[in-house]
Amino acid sequence: MTQSAPEKRLYIKTYGCQMNVYDSERMADVLRPLGYGVTNDPEGADLVVLNTCHIREKATEKVYSELGQIKLMKSRKAEAGGTMNVVVAGCVAQAEGAEIMRRQPAVDLVVGPQAYHQIPELIAKAHRATGERLSADFAPDEKFDALPADRQVTGVTAFLTVQEGCDKFCTFCVVPYTRGGEWSRPADAILAEARVLADKGVREVTLLGQNVNAYDGCEGGLAGLVRKLAKIDGVDRIRYTTSHPRDMDEALIAAHGELPELMPYLHLPVQAGSDKILKAMNRAHTAESYIRLIEKIRAARPDIAISGDLIVGFPGERDGDFEATMNLVREVGYAACFSFKYSRRPGTPASAMPGQVAEELKDERLQRLNALLGEQQQAFNESVVGRVAPVLIEKPGRHAGQIGGRSPWLQPVHIDGPESLIGRIVPVRIDAATRNSLSGSLVPETA
Ligand code: SAH
Ligand code: SF4
Ligand code: F3S
Protein backbone atom coordinates (compact mmCIF):
# COMPACT_ATOMS: atom_id res chain seq x y z
CA MET A 1 0.00 0.00 0.00
CA THR A 2 1.40 3.37 -0.92
CA GLN A 3 1.10 6.11 1.57
CA SER A 4 0.00 9.38 0.10
CA ALA A 5 2.00 12.47 0.90
CA PRO A 6 0.44 14.82 3.47
CA GLU A 7 -1.65 17.49 1.83
CA LYS A 8 0.08 20.78 1.25
CA ARG A 9 -1.84 23.79 2.46
CA LEU A 10 -2.99 26.47 0.06
CA TYR A 11 -4.40 29.77 1.29
CA ILE A 12 -6.11 32.01 -1.27
CA LYS A 13 -7.42 35.46 -0.44
CA THR A 14 -9.67 37.06 -3.02
CA TYR A 15 -10.22 40.77 -3.54
CA GLY A 16 -12.35 42.59 -6.11
CA CYS A 17 -15.02 41.36 -8.45
CA GLN A 18 -16.72 38.02 -9.11
CA MET A 19 -14.30 37.32 -11.93
CA ASN A 20 -11.59 37.10 -9.31
CA VAL A 21 -13.77 34.75 -7.25
CA TYR A 22 -14.03 32.48 -10.29
CA ASP A 23 -10.28 32.73 -10.96
CA SER A 24 -9.47 31.83 -7.35
CA GLU A 25 -11.60 28.70 -7.57
CA ARG A 26 -9.86 27.75 -10.79
CA MET A 27 -6.44 28.35 -9.23
CA ALA A 28 -7.38 25.87 -6.52
CA ASP A 29 -8.44 23.46 -9.30
CA VAL A 30 -5.08 23.68 -11.09
CA LEU A 31 -3.14 23.29 -7.85
CA ARG A 32 -5.12 20.33 -6.47
CA PRO A 33 -3.31 17.74 -8.62
CA LEU A 34 -0.05 18.97 -7.08
CA GLY A 35 -1.34 18.00 -3.65
CA TYR A 36 -2.63 21.36 -2.46
CA GLY A 37 -5.75 21.52 -0.34
CA VAL A 38 -7.43 24.82 0.50
CA THR A 39 -7.11 26.15 4.06
CA ASN A 40 -8.79 29.15 5.69
CA ASP A 41 -5.73 30.11 7.71
CA PRO A 42 -2.64 31.64 6.13
CA GLU A 43 -0.45 30.91 9.19
CA GLY A 44 1.87 28.07 8.29
CA ALA A 45 0.43 27.59 4.79
CA ASP A 46 2.74 26.17 2.12
CA LEU A 47 1.41 28.45 -0.56
CA VAL A 48 -0.29 31.82 -0.13
CA VAL A 49 -2.03 33.43 -3.09
CA LEU A 50 -3.43 36.95 -2.95
CA ASN A 51 -5.78 37.42 -5.89
CA THR A 52 -5.88 41.17 -6.09
CA CYS A 53 -7.98 44.09 -7.34
CA HIS A 54 -6.69 47.37 -8.72
CA ILE A 55 -9.98 49.16 -9.28
CA ARG A 56 -9.66 51.76 -6.51
CA GLU A 57 -6.71 52.99 -4.49
CA LYS A 58 -8.07 51.41 -1.30
CA ALA A 59 -8.33 47.98 -2.92
CA THR A 60 -4.69 48.17 -3.97
CA GLU A 61 -3.43 49.42 -0.62
CA LYS A 62 -5.18 46.54 1.18
CA VAL A 63 -2.95 44.15 -0.73
CA TYR A 64 0.23 45.78 0.48
CA SER A 65 -0.90 45.77 4.10
CA GLU A 66 -1.92 42.09 3.84
CA LEU A 67 1.50 41.32 2.35
CA GLY A 68 3.09 42.88 5.45
CA GLN A 69 1.29 40.28 7.60
CA ILE A 70 2.13 37.45 5.21
CA LYS A 71 5.79 38.39 5.34
CA LEU A 72 5.82 37.86 9.13
CA MET A 73 4.16 34.46 8.72
CA LYS A 74 6.68 33.52 6.08
CA SER A 75 9.55 34.39 8.45
CA ARG A 76 7.96 32.39 11.28
CA LYS A 77 7.63 29.38 9.00
CA ALA A 78 11.24 29.73 7.83
CA GLU A 79 12.42 29.85 11.47
CA ALA A 80 10.59 26.58 12.05
CA GLY A 81 12.42 25.11 9.07
CA GLY A 82 9.56 25.30 6.57
CA THR A 83 8.84 27.17 3.37
CA MET A 84 5.95 29.39 2.39
CA ASN A 85 5.61 30.47 -1.22
CA VAL A 86 3.88 33.79 -1.74
CA VAL A 87 2.13 34.56 -5.01
CA VAL A 88 0.43 37.81 -5.96
CA ALA A 89 -2.13 37.22 -8.71
CA GLY A 90 -4.88 39.30 -10.32
CA CYS A 91 -5.15 42.89 -11.40
CA VAL A 92 -2.58 44.53 -9.09
CA ALA A 93 -0.11 41.90 -10.28
CA GLN A 94 -0.83 42.83 -13.88
CA ALA A 95 -0.75 46.58 -13.28
CA GLU A 96 2.21 46.94 -10.97
CA GLY A 97 4.16 43.69 -10.80
CA ALA A 98 7.58 45.34 -10.60
CA GLU A 99 6.36 47.68 -7.86
CA ILE A 100 5.14 44.71 -5.79
CA MET A 101 8.52 43.03 -6.05
CA ARG A 102 10.24 46.24 -5.02
CA ARG A 103 7.92 46.99 -2.10
CA GLN A 104 7.63 43.45 -0.75
CA PRO A 105 10.58 41.08 -1.22
CA ALA A 106 8.64 38.28 0.50
CA VAL A 107 6.73 37.83 -2.76
CA ASP A 108 8.04 34.89 -4.81
CA LEU A 109 5.89 35.20 -7.86
CA VAL A 110 3.67 37.79 -9.51
CA VAL A 111 1.16 36.47 -12.00
CA GLY A 112 -1.46 38.35 -14.03
CA PRO A 113 -5.09 37.28 -14.58
CA GLN A 114 -4.35 35.48 -17.85
CA ALA A 115 -1.30 33.56 -16.64
CA TYR A 116 -2.36 31.81 -13.43
CA HIS A 117 -2.61 28.43 -15.13
CA GLN A 118 1.20 28.52 -15.07
CA ILE A 119 1.41 28.67 -11.27
CA PRO A 120 1.79 24.88 -10.80
CA GLU A 121 4.78 24.73 -13.10
CA LEU A 122 6.44 27.62 -11.32
CA ILE A 123 5.62 26.29 -7.88
CA ALA A 124 6.96 22.86 -8.79
CA LYS A 125 10.24 24.62 -9.46
CA ALA A 126 9.75 26.83 -6.44
CA HIS A 127 13.42 27.51 -5.93
CA ARG A 128 13.59 28.91 -9.41
CA ALA A 129 10.40 30.87 -9.10
CA THR A 130 11.93 33.42 -6.76
CA GLY A 131 11.37 36.88 -8.09
CA GLU A 132 9.59 35.82 -11.26
CA ARG A 133 7.07 38.06 -12.84
CA LEU A 134 4.52 36.65 -15.19
CA SER A 135 2.07 38.84 -16.93
CA ALA A 136 0.27 38.01 -20.09
CA ASP A 137 -0.39 39.64 -23.38
CA PHE A 138 -4.09 39.03 -22.79
CA ALA A 139 -4.78 35.88 -24.72
CA PRO A 140 -7.16 34.14 -22.34
CA ASP A 141 -7.48 31.18 -24.77
CA GLU A 142 -4.32 29.64 -23.47
CA LYS A 143 -5.41 29.91 -19.86
CA PHE A 144 -8.84 28.40 -20.44
CA ASP A 145 -7.36 25.59 -22.55
CA ALA A 146 -4.99 24.75 -19.72
CA LEU A 147 -7.60 24.68 -16.95
CA PRO A 148 -8.83 21.23 -15.92
CA ALA A 149 -12.27 20.25 -17.24
CA ASP A 150 -13.28 19.23 -13.76
CA ARG A 151 -14.27 21.78 -11.16
CA GLN A 152 -14.67 21.39 -7.46
CA VAL A 153 -18.02 22.85 -6.48
CA THR A 154 -19.27 23.45 -3.00
CA GLY A 155 -22.78 24.77 -3.43
CA VAL A 156 -25.84 24.90 -5.65
CA THR A 157 -24.82 28.15 -7.32
CA ALA A 158 -21.67 28.78 -9.33
CA PHE A 159 -19.87 31.42 -11.34
CA LEU A 160 -18.86 30.68 -14.90
CA THR A 161 -16.57 33.04 -16.81
CA VAL A 162 -17.66 33.47 -20.44
CA GLN A 163 -16.02 36.75 -21.41
CA GLU A 164 -12.99 38.71 -20.31
CA GLY A 165 -11.62 42.15 -20.82
CA CYS A 166 -12.91 45.50 -21.90
CA ASP A 167 -12.54 47.78 -24.94
CA LYS A 168 -14.64 50.61 -23.55
CA PHE A 169 -11.92 52.66 -21.87
CA CYS A 170 -14.06 54.63 -19.49
CA THR A 171 -11.66 57.38 -18.51
CA PHE A 172 -11.69 56.49 -14.78
CA CYS A 173 -11.12 52.74 -15.09
CA VAL A 174 -8.09 50.45 -14.99
CA VAL A 175 -9.82 47.28 -16.22
CA PRO A 176 -8.88 47.63 -19.92
CA TYR A 177 -5.26 47.83 -18.77
CA THR A 178 -5.34 44.98 -16.27
CA ARG A 179 -7.56 42.53 -18.15
CA GLY A 180 -6.89 43.46 -21.76
CA GLY A 181 -9.31 43.68 -24.67
CA GLU A 182 -12.69 42.00 -25.02
CA TRP A 183 -12.48 38.28 -25.58
CA SER A 184 -15.25 35.67 -25.66
CA ARG A 185 -14.81 32.08 -24.65
CA PRO A 186 -16.03 29.54 -27.22
CA ALA A 187 -19.59 28.38 -26.49
CA ASP A 188 -18.69 24.67 -26.54
CA ALA A 189 -16.23 25.06 -23.68
CA ILE A 190 -18.79 27.03 -21.67
CA LEU A 191 -21.52 24.46 -22.27
CA ALA A 192 -19.17 21.65 -21.26
CA GLU A 193 -18.29 23.45 -18.03
CA ALA A 194 -21.97 24.14 -17.33
CA ARG A 195 -22.74 20.41 -17.74
CA VAL A 196 -20.01 19.54 -15.23
CA LEU A 197 -21.53 22.05 -12.81
CA ALA A 198 -25.06 20.72 -13.32
CA ASP A 199 -23.86 17.13 -12.79
CA LYS A 200 -22.42 18.23 -9.47
CA GLY A 201 -25.69 19.67 -8.27
CA VAL A 202 -25.41 23.29 -9.36
CA ARG A 203 -28.84 24.72 -10.16
CA GLU A 204 -27.98 28.35 -10.76
CA VAL A 205 -25.17 29.62 -12.96
CA THR A 206 -23.98 33.22 -13.07
CA LEU A 207 -22.19 34.03 -16.31
CA LEU A 208 -19.31 36.40 -15.76
CA GLY A 209 -17.52 38.93 -17.88
CA GLN A 210 -16.19 42.45 -17.44
CA ASN A 211 -18.56 43.21 -20.31
CA VAL A 212 -20.57 40.03 -20.35
CA ASN A 213 -23.23 41.28 -22.75
CA ALA A 214 -20.53 41.98 -25.35
CA TYR A 215 -20.20 38.17 -25.55
CA ASP A 216 -19.85 37.08 -29.19
CA GLY A 217 -18.59 33.51 -28.91
CA CYS A 218 -21.67 32.03 -30.59
CA GLU A 219 -24.48 32.99 -32.88
CA GLY A 220 -26.90 35.36 -31.25
CA GLY A 221 -24.34 36.67 -28.78
CA LEU A 222 -25.09 36.39 -25.07
CA ALA A 223 -28.80 35.76 -25.75
CA GLY A 224 -27.81 32.82 -27.98
CA LEU A 225 -25.55 31.42 -25.29
CA VAL A 226 -28.20 31.79 -22.60
CA ARG A 227 -30.69 29.89 -24.77
CA LYS A 228 -28.24 27.01 -25.19
CA LEU A 229 -27.47 26.94 -21.46
CA ALA A 230 -31.16 26.97 -20.56
CA LYS A 231 -31.52 23.63 -22.36
CA ILE A 232 -29.05 21.86 -20.09
CA ASP A 233 -30.81 19.60 -17.62
CA GLY A 234 -30.29 20.88 -14.11
CA VAL A 235 -29.44 24.45 -15.10
CA ASP A 236 -32.64 26.02 -13.83
CA ARG A 237 -31.51 29.54 -13.22
CA ILE A 238 -29.21 31.76 -15.24
CA ARG A 239 -27.84 35.16 -14.33
CA TYR A 240 -25.12 37.29 -15.90
CA THR A 241 -22.96 40.21 -14.84
CA THR A 242 -21.63 42.88 -15.60
CA SER A 243 -23.30 44.51 -18.58
CA HIS A 244 -22.61 47.72 -20.44
CA PRO A 245 -25.62 49.73 -21.65
CA ARG A 246 -24.07 49.92 -25.11
CA ASP A 247 -24.14 46.14 -25.57
CA MET A 248 -27.69 45.54 -24.33
CA ASP A 249 -29.12 44.31 -27.62
CA GLU A 250 -32.69 43.51 -28.66
CA ALA A 251 -32.13 39.76 -28.57
CA LEU A 252 -30.98 39.86 -24.95
CA ILE A 253 -33.87 42.11 -23.93
CA ALA A 254 -36.28 39.73 -25.66
CA ALA A 255 -34.73 36.76 -23.88
CA HIS A 256 -35.66 38.35 -20.55
CA GLY A 257 -39.29 38.24 -21.59
CA GLU A 258 -39.18 34.72 -23.00
CA LEU A 259 -36.84 32.51 -20.99
CA PRO A 260 -38.07 31.43 -17.57
CA GLU A 261 -34.52 30.32 -16.71
CA LEU A 262 -33.19 33.84 -17.15
CA MET A 263 -33.65 35.49 -13.77
CA PRO A 264 -35.33 38.90 -13.53
CA TYR A 265 -32.27 40.76 -12.33
CA LEU A 266 -29.99 42.99 -14.34
CA HIS A 267 -26.82 44.75 -13.25
CA LEU A 268 -26.50 47.64 -15.67
CA PRO A 269 -24.10 50.32 -14.43
CA VAL A 270 -24.80 53.90 -15.45
CA GLN A 271 -22.03 55.62 -13.40
CA ALA A 272 -23.55 59.12 -13.49
CA GLY A 273 -26.68 61.07 -14.39
CA SER A 274 -25.13 64.17 -15.95
CA ASP A 275 -24.49 64.04 -19.67
CA LYS A 276 -21.48 66.31 -19.29
CA ILE A 277 -19.93 63.86 -16.82
CA LEU A 278 -20.96 60.80 -18.85
CA LYS A 279 -19.20 62.30 -21.84
CA ALA A 280 -16.06 63.02 -19.83
CA MET A 281 -16.23 59.42 -18.61
CA ASN A 282 -16.39 58.20 -22.23
CA ARG A 283 -19.47 56.12 -21.42
CA ALA A 284 -21.05 56.38 -24.90
CA HIS A 285 -24.55 56.77 -23.49
CA THR A 286 -26.60 59.62 -22.08
CA ALA A 287 -28.86 59.69 -19.05
CA GLU A 288 -31.84 59.76 -21.42
CA SER A 289 -30.69 56.81 -23.55
CA TYR A 290 -30.06 54.80 -20.38
CA ILE A 291 -33.54 55.50 -19.07
CA ARG A 292 -35.11 54.59 -22.44
CA LEU A 293 -33.15 51.34 -22.33
CA ILE A 294 -34.45 50.53 -18.85
CA GLU A 295 -38.00 51.20 -20.07
CA LYS A 296 -37.53 48.74 -22.93
CA ILE A 297 -36.18 46.09 -20.60
CA ARG A 298 -39.08 46.61 -18.20
CA ALA A 299 -41.51 46.33 -21.09
CA ALA A 300 -40.07 42.86 -21.80
CA ARG A 301 -39.91 41.80 -18.14
CA PRO A 302 -41.95 44.13 -15.92
CA ASP A 303 -40.80 42.75 -12.57
CA ILE A 304 -37.08 42.89 -13.38
CA ALA A 305 -34.83 44.13 -10.57
CA ILE A 306 -32.40 46.75 -11.84
CA SER A 307 -29.05 47.24 -10.19
CA GLY A 308 -26.08 49.37 -11.11
CA ASP A 309 -22.90 51.18 -10.20
CA LEU A 310 -22.54 54.90 -9.60
CA ILE A 311 -19.52 57.11 -9.10
CA VAL A 312 -19.63 60.40 -7.20
CA GLY A 313 -16.97 63.08 -7.40
CA PHE A 314 -15.70 62.42 -10.90
CA PRO A 315 -13.44 65.36 -11.97
CA GLY A 316 -15.56 68.36 -12.93
CA GLU A 317 -18.68 67.14 -11.10
CA ARG A 318 -20.51 70.26 -9.88
CA ASP A 319 -23.54 70.34 -7.59
CA GLY A 320 -25.86 70.35 -10.59
CA ASP A 321 -24.18 67.27 -12.08
CA PHE A 322 -24.59 65.41 -8.83
CA GLU A 323 -28.26 66.43 -8.67
CA ALA A 324 -28.64 64.95 -12.15
CA THR A 325 -27.33 61.65 -10.76
CA MET A 326 -29.86 61.85 -7.91
CA ASN A 327 -32.64 62.55 -10.42
CA LEU A 328 -31.65 59.63 -12.62
CA VAL A 329 -31.68 57.34 -9.59
CA ARG A 330 -35.17 58.59 -8.67
CA GLU A 331 -36.36 57.94 -12.19
CA VAL A 332 -34.90 54.42 -12.46
CA GLY A 333 -35.76 53.12 -8.99
CA TYR A 334 -32.98 50.65 -8.25
CA ALA A 335 -33.51 47.37 -6.48
CA ALA A 336 -29.89 47.46 -5.39
CA CYS A 337 -27.05 49.66 -6.46
CA PHE A 338 -23.35 50.07 -5.68
CA SER A 339 -21.92 53.52 -5.20
CA PHE A 340 -18.31 54.61 -5.12
CA LYS A 341 -16.29 57.73 -4.52
CA TYR A 342 -14.18 58.48 -7.55
CA SER A 343 -10.67 57.17 -6.97
CA ARG A 344 -7.81 58.61 -8.97
CA ARG A 345 -6.03 55.76 -10.78
CA PRO A 346 -2.54 56.45 -12.12
CA GLY A 347 -2.34 56.21 -15.89
CA THR A 348 -6.06 56.68 -16.56
CA PRO A 349 -7.15 59.82 -18.45
CA ALA A 350 -9.45 61.07 -15.66
CA SER A 351 -6.63 61.14 -13.15
CA ALA A 352 -5.07 64.00 -15.11
CA MET A 353 -8.32 65.94 -15.62
CA PRO A 354 -8.80 69.35 -14.03
CA GLY A 355 -11.52 69.87 -11.43
CA GLN A 356 -10.67 67.00 -9.08
CA VAL A 357 -13.30 67.02 -6.35
CA ALA A 358 -12.40 67.49 -2.67
CA GLU A 359 -12.67 64.38 -0.52
CA GLU A 360 -15.18 65.97 1.91
CA LEU A 361 -17.49 66.87 -0.94
CA LYS A 362 -17.30 63.32 -2.28
CA ASP A 363 -18.17 62.05 1.21
CA GLU A 364 -21.15 64.37 1.43
CA ARG A 365 -22.47 63.35 -1.97
CA LEU A 366 -21.94 59.68 -1.33
CA GLN A 367 -23.90 59.95 1.92
CA ARG A 368 -26.86 61.61 0.21
CA LEU A 369 -26.78 59.12 -2.63
CA ASN A 370 -26.59 56.15 -0.28
CA ALA A 371 -29.54 57.40 1.73
CA LEU A 372 -31.62 57.44 -1.45
CA LEU A 373 -30.36 54.06 -2.65
CA GLY A 374 -31.08 52.57 0.78
CA GLU A 375 -34.68 53.79 0.63
CA GLN A 376 -35.07 52.35 -2.85
CA GLN A 377 -33.67 49.00 -1.83
CA GLN A 378 -36.03 48.84 1.14
CA ALA A 379 -38.97 49.81 -1.10
CA PHE A 380 -38.06 47.17 -3.66
CA ASN A 381 -37.80 44.49 -1.01
CA GLU A 382 -41.15 45.53 0.47
CA SER A 383 -42.75 45.35 -2.96
CA VAL A 384 -42.48 41.57 -2.98
CA VAL A 385 -43.98 41.05 0.48
CA GLY A 386 -47.17 39.03 0.21
CA ARG A 387 -46.09 37.35 -3.01
CA VAL A 388 -45.30 33.69 -3.40
CA ALA A 389 -41.91 33.39 -5.10
CA PRO A 390 -39.76 30.44 -6.16
CA VAL A 391 -36.72 30.39 -3.90
CA LEU A 392 -33.57 28.38 -4.56
CA ILE A 393 -32.57 26.97 -1.19
CA GLU A 394 -28.79 27.35 -0.92
CA LYS A 395 -27.66 26.70 2.63
CA PRO A 396 -28.56 26.17 6.27
CA GLY A 397 -29.74 29.34 7.98
CA ARG A 398 -28.07 31.12 10.85
CA HIS A 399 -30.28 29.41 13.44
CA ALA A 400 -31.20 25.75 13.81
CA GLY A 401 -34.24 24.84 11.74
CA GLN A 402 -33.62 27.74 9.36
CA ILE A 403 -32.61 27.64 5.73
CA GLY A 404 -31.45 30.37 3.40
CA GLY A 405 -31.95 30.93 -0.30
CA ARG A 406 -32.39 33.52 -3.01
CA SER A 407 -35.46 34.95 -4.66
CA PRO A 408 -35.52 35.35 -8.45
CA TRP A 409 -34.62 39.01 -7.79
CA LEU A 410 -31.44 37.97 -5.96
CA GLN A 411 -32.70 38.91 -2.50
CA PRO A 412 -31.54 36.62 0.34
CA VAL A 413 -34.56 34.86 1.88
CA HIS A 414 -34.62 33.34 5.39
CA ILE A 415 -37.11 30.54 5.92
CA ASP A 416 -37.98 28.01 8.62
CA GLY A 417 -37.52 24.65 6.98
CA PRO A 418 -35.46 21.46 6.73
CA GLU A 419 -31.94 21.33 5.28
CA SER A 420 -33.12 18.53 3.01
CA LEU A 421 -34.51 21.27 0.76
CA ILE A 422 -31.03 22.58 -0.10
CA GLY A 423 -30.66 22.49 -3.87
CA ARG A 424 -34.40 22.68 -4.50
CA ILE A 425 -36.45 25.54 -5.84
CA VAL A 426 -39.54 25.84 -3.67
CA PRO A 427 -42.48 28.24 -3.46
CA VAL A 428 -42.12 30.62 -0.54
CA ARG A 429 -44.57 33.20 0.74
CA ILE A 430 -42.65 36.39 1.45
CA ASP A 431 -43.74 37.64 4.88
CA ALA A 432 -41.43 40.54 5.67
CA ALA A 433 -38.63 42.64 4.26
CA THR A 434 -35.66 44.56 5.59
CA ARG A 435 -33.19 46.59 3.56
CA ASN A 436 -30.94 43.58 3.01
CA SER A 437 -33.13 40.50 3.06
CA LEU A 438 -36.55 38.88 3.13
CA SER A 439 -38.15 36.36 5.41
CA GLY A 440 -40.75 33.91 4.24
CA SER A 441 -42.55 30.66 4.88
CA LEU A 442 -42.77 27.48 2.86
CA VAL A 443 -45.91 27.04 0.83
CA PRO A 444 -47.15 23.47 0.40
CA GLU A 445 -46.37 22.65 -3.23
CA THR A 446 -49.37 22.29 -5.49
CA ALA A 447 -49.18 19.55 -8.04
N1 SAH B 1 -17.14 46.27 -16.33
C1 SAH B 1 -17.98 46.68 -15.32
C2 SAH B 1 -17.36 46.82 -13.95
C3 SAH B 1 -16.12 47.57 -13.80
S1 SAH B 1 -15.48 47.85 -12.22
C4 SAH B 1 -18.74 47.87 -15.78
O1 SAH B 1 -18.40 48.53 -16.72
O2 SAH B 1 -19.75 48.17 -15.18
C5 SAH B 1 -16.87 48.01 -11.18
C6 SAH B 1 -17.24 49.41 -10.85
O3 SAH B 1 -16.21 50.06 -10.16
C7 SAH B 1 -17.53 50.30 -12.02
O4 SAH B 1 -18.78 50.08 -12.57
C8 SAH B 1 -17.37 51.66 -11.43
O5 SAH B 1 -18.58 52.13 -10.89
C9 SAH B 1 -16.38 51.44 -10.30
N2 SAH B 1 -15.09 52.07 -10.62
C10 SAH B 1 -14.25 51.77 -11.61
N3 SAH B 1 -13.16 52.59 -11.59
C11 SAH B 1 -13.35 53.43 -10.54
C12 SAH B 1 -12.60 54.53 -10.03
N4 SAH B 1 -11.46 54.92 -10.57
N5 SAH B 1 -13.10 55.16 -8.94
C13 SAH B 1 -14.27 54.79 -8.38
N6 SAH B 1 -15.02 53.78 -8.85
C14 SAH B 1 -14.57 53.11 -9.92
FE1 SF4 C 1 -14.16 49.80 -16.74
FE2 SF4 C 1 -15.82 51.07 -18.33
FE3 SF4 C 1 -14.76 48.79 -19.11
FE4 SF4 C 1 -16.56 48.81 -17.17
S1 SF4 C 1 -16.91 49.40 -19.30
S2 SF4 C 1 -14.64 47.70 -17.18
S3 SF4 C 1 -16.12 50.71 -16.12
S4 SF4 C 1 -13.66 50.66 -18.78
FE1 F3S D 1 -10.77 44.58 -9.59
FE2 F3S D 1 -9.66 43.47 -11.66
FE3 F3S D 1 -12.15 42.89 -11.02
S1 F3S D 1 -9.38 45.54 -11.02
S2 F3S D 1 -12.88 44.75 -10.11
S3 F3S D 1 -10.37 42.44 -9.82
S4 F3S D 1 -11.32 43.11 -13.05
From TrEMBL:
Enzyme class: transferase
UniProt GO MF annotations: 4 iron, 4 sulfur cluster binding; metal ion binding; tRNA-2-methylthio-N(6)-dimethylallyladenosine(37) synthase activity
SMART domains, sorted: Elp3
Name of the protein this chain belongs to: tRNA-2-methylthio-N(6)-dimethylallyladenosine synthase
Subunit organization: Monomer.
KW DNA-binding (keyword) present: no
Chain ranges of the MTTase N-terminal domain: 8-128
Role summary: Catalyzes the methylthiolation of N6-(dimethylallyl)adenosine (i(6)A), leading to the formation of 2-methylthio-N6-(dimethylallyl)adenosine (ms(2)i(6)A) at position 37 in tRNAs that read codons beginning with uridine.
Name of the coding gene: miaB
